[in-house]
Amino acid sequence: MGNAGRNGGEYYTPRPLIRAIVQVIKPKLGNRIYDGACGSAGFLCESFEYLKSPGNANLPIGVSPSANIGVSPAANREIGAPSLTTKDLKVLQTRTFYGKEKKSLAYVIAIMNMILHGIEAPNIIHTNTLTENLADIQEKDRYDVVLANPPFGGQERKEVQQNFPIRTGETAFLFLQHFIKILKAGGRGGIVIKNTFLSNTDNASVSLRKMLLESCNLHTVLDCPGGTFQGAGVKTVVLLFEKGTKTRKIWFYQLDPGRNLGKTNPLNDDDLAEFVKLQETFANSPKSWTVDAKTIDPATFDLSVKNPNGGEAVAHRSPQEIMDEIAALDAESTEVLESIKGLTHLDSVLTQRAEGWANKRIGEISQHSLGKMLDKAKNRGDLRPYLRNINVRWFTFDLSDLLQMRFLQGEAAKYTAVKGDVLVCEGGYPGRAAIWNEDYPIYFQKALHRVRFHKPEHGKWFVYYLYAQDKSGALRQHFSGTGIQHFTGEGLDRFEIPIPPLPELRRQVARIDELFTETQRLESIYQQKLAALEALKKSLLHQAFSGQL
444 forms bridges with which residues in the sheet? Predict the structure, then answer.
């Protein structure tokens, strides 16, 4: 089973590593446990074994999860570990384990594997998890525990990447966004991912690390040695986190089994015993250390694993391995450039004319208004988080530093944006805009315009047009003020935008979406190439000074 489907970054997770992750996450009876890239369902099967062992679902403090596996009922009573009732077993069978898998062979193996482990009716769906739009995930869809080893290095279709706030060609990064979104508040996650995630400098990696640290408590990072995944040429880390609170401290553990791992010498449970024991108290040791989140660079959110105890052990890849990576990146960038060649320049896409096009003022095709003025002396009501112009970025929002202001209950309709509304900066960075796509409303202050179009399709077209005008410098002519400039309500009302017929507008928006996806993908490739070139220099120097060159 473990060798099936081994391509495109799909390597089945060693069972000792899965068992260690499960013991750290400590799922409880009644938790809904999910793996959206379940492969052969290893995480779900091992979670089932953990929970069905008497007492693991509700162990006394200080009792090891492995202490009561396979022991007698009398021994279980002695340590205070209750046996499972018939009702408990029914919950485990029907309302605990959920998975999704894209590959047909892996899907069949997952079903068979769960049945062989005693789960008679597996809740496994044969689907591509990434085709689900994150904005459509509701509270009823969320889970208590997410455990997964998502595939890495794959490429999803461009329309799939549109489902995610952080668009990237790296499949594992899309999965991580999905896992964070689908966890309940207070939910726990254990995710295996390439170790380059910790330090890559491309925009997607930086944005995703920022999202993880600010929306979750990333309490543990397990650095796995090379050879953990047989046949895989990359190193991995395990991210262990809880959703709902910011990261304060991160405990790192550098797994070193003291031997080279391989097909005849794989990872075993004893190799991970110290990690599981030390993680309970986040104890520091020669292999483990703690990093305060305040010391993490806010520009890069670099989480590189560097052991401060006994010097840093650097694992140098061979020059040939790095050059092979660069060659693969070259081939990928060529493919992306060919795709971009077929797309028209953004400015011409947005300004060309055809039959049925018409210039329309924003005041004609929408309702727009400013938010509430910040006045602590006059504002009354309940404190609510609100958007400022600093929170609005091009096409997205930075919600990491929302402030609060008092709003009366009757002011909600006037001063909140709902899904589909466009928020445009009045000052600060006049004209910068994004569409609010969350299911919940958000308050906003006077430095922002809320634009609500009569036809929702006009919203994205408008944001793209503002972006094109900003990049060409033409947007400035619509601002008032010589020093500090503003995009006033009057200026916004008079602002004209070329509007094509709806079928043509949808086609043009799809073309621009494709252009943006491909250029972001190209940017990510170039950032990876720069990192690989730096690694190549280090590897060559290491070989030179160790007499291997």
Answer: 387
273: Cβ–Cβ under 8 A, 6 or more apart, which residues?
A: none
Do 308 and 405 share a domain, yes or no?
no
- How does DSSP assign 243-300, residue by residue? ETS---EEEEEE---SS--BTTB---HHHHHHHHHHHTTT--BTTEEEEEGGGS-TTT
Helix count (H) and strand count (E) of the chain? 16, 21
Contact (CB, 8 A) for 525 and 333: yes
Same domain, 71 and 178: yes
Same domain, 311 and 367: no
pLDDT at 252: 96
* CATH number reported for the structural domain that contains residue 52 in this entry: 3.40.50.150
- The angle subtended at Cα 151 by Cα 150 and Cα 156, nearest 5°, is 110
Question: CB–CB of 143/184 below 8 Å?
Answer: yes
Question: Do 442 and 301 fall within a single domain?
Answer: no
CATH for 393:
3.90.220.20
Amino acid at position 37, single letter? A
Same domain, 38 and 183: yes
Task: Please tell me the predicted confidence (pLDDT) of residue 126.
Answer: 94
Residues spanned by the domain of 274: 15-315
* Domain presence at residue 292: yes
- For the chain, the domain total comes to 2
Which of 95-99, 139-143, 259-263, 365-369 has the lowest average pLDDT? 259-263
Distances (CA, A) of 182 to 26, 36, 159: 19, 10, 20
Query: What digits encode the pLDDT tens for the residues 487-525?
Result: 999 999 999 999 999 999 998 898 888 888 778 778 777
List CB contacts of 205: < 8 A, sequence separation 6 or more: 168, 173, 196, 197, 199, 524, 527
**Residue 165, phi then psi, degrees to nearest 5:** -65, -35
Contact by Cβ (8 Å): 528, 204: no
Are 80 and 57 a contacting pair, CB within 8 Å? Answer: no
Which element (helix H / strand E) includes 535? helix 502-545
- Give the mean pLDDT of the chain: 84
Tokens of 314: 């650097």
User: SS3 letters for 320-334?
Assistant: HHHHHHHHHHHHHHH
Q: Which residues contact 76 (CB under 8 A, 6 or more apart)?
A: 54, 55, 68, 82, 83
pLDDT for the residue 316:
60
Tell whether 42 is covered by a domain.
yes
Q: What is the Cβ-side half-sphere exposure of residue 24, based on CA atoms within 13 angstroms?
A: 34
pLDDT digits (tens, 9 = 90+) for 391-421: 999 998 887 778 888 888 888 889 999 999 9
**376 lies in the same domain as 241:** no
Residue 512, domain member (yes or no): no
- Residue 184: exposure state from Cβ atoms within 10 A (0-12, 13-18, ≥19): middle
CA-to-CA separations, 458 to 139, 238, 368, 503, in angstroms, rounded = 29, 43, 14, 12
Residue 514 falls inside a structural domain: no
Question: How confident is the model at residue 6, as a pLDDT?
Answer: 40
- Work out whether strand 97-101 and strand 123-126 pair parallel, antiparallel, or are unpaired: parallel
Per-residue pLDDT averaged across 253-280, rounded?
A: 88
